[in-house]
Amino acid sequence: YNLEDWSSRETIYLKEKQAIARYVAENLLVPHTTVILDAGTTCLEVAREIARRDIKLTVLTSSARAAFILMSVPDNIDLYLFGGMYNAKRSSFYDEYQQFVLEKMRANLFLMGINGVSPDLGLTITGGDEAGAKINLMNISAKSIALADHSKVGRNSLKFICDLSAIDGMVTDSGISDESVEEFRKKGVNVMIAPVQETS
């Protein structure tokens, strides 16, 4: 898809994104470490989940909305907002200025939002110069984990980010097919599956 407005993007596969966020909070976030939270709707759900839990973290983000959510728990979160020009379509601060800030920062974990991931063509994104920015964030992080609900699995977007070998794992939801999981694991990807909670 292209850059829909946030109100529509936030409701697409919401249960799946919430499941991924719960999985990340329960299994990947280590207290007193530094986490980079990418812009994007799945990472926004991660921010909400962090705010709900008593996890003490240092969080770096370019997402204005994630930053506002994390500002509600100042006792737990040391928050750094990457600067640059505000991009209203992405609700994030983003331009070439970011790379100069990144030269001085390091993180334990980068939670990366993507638009597509496939066993053959790797990780892809739709817009702008985001691919280069994500590579920069990967370069300053000890580990990089891609977050992708099952609708993004097997699809390819316009801009190539990196091969599967460049990431340390991928969190998706239980809507992914067994065949897809097997394909990714054959490529050496640590596929982590978040169970989706059905609401009555």
Per-chain topology:
Blueprint: H1 6-11, H2 14-27, E1 34-37, H3 41-52, E2 57-61, H4 64-70, E3 77-81, E4 86-87, E5 92-93, H5 98-102, E6 107-113, E7 116-118, E8 122-125, H6 130-139, E9 141-147, E10 159-162, E11 169-173, H7 178-186, E12 191-194
Parallel strand pairs: 1-2, 1-6, 2-3, 6-9, 9-11, 11-12
Antiparallel strand pairs: 4-5, 7-8, 8-10
Describe this structure in words.
This protein is 32% helix and 26% strand. By secondary structure, the protein is α/β, with parallel strands linked by helices. The strands form three sheets. A seven-stranded parallel sheet has the order 3-2-1-6-9-11-12, sandwiched between helices. Strands 7-8-10 form a three-stranded antiparallel sheet, with helices on one face. A hairpin with a 3-residue loop joins strand 7 and strand 8. Helix 2 (14-27) crosses helix 3 (41-52) and helix 3 runs parallel beside helix 4 (64-70).
Can you describe this structure in just a few lines?
The chain has helices at 6-11, 14-27, 41-52, 64-70, 98-102, 130-139, 178-186, and strands at residues 34-37, 57-61, 77-81, 86-87, 92-93, 107-113, 116-118, 122-125, 141-147, 159-162, 169-173, 191-194.
The share of residues in helices is 25-40%
Q: H/E element string?
A: HHEHEHEEEHEEEHEEEHE
Shape: globular
Report the sheet with the most strands, covering strand number, pairing sense and barrel closure: 7 strands, parallel
Strand content: 25-35%
Radius of gyration: 16 Å
Number of helices: 7
Q: Care to count the β-strands? A: 12
Ranges where pLDDT stays below 50 over 5 or more residues in a row are none
Strand order of the largest sheet: 3-2-1-6-9-11-12
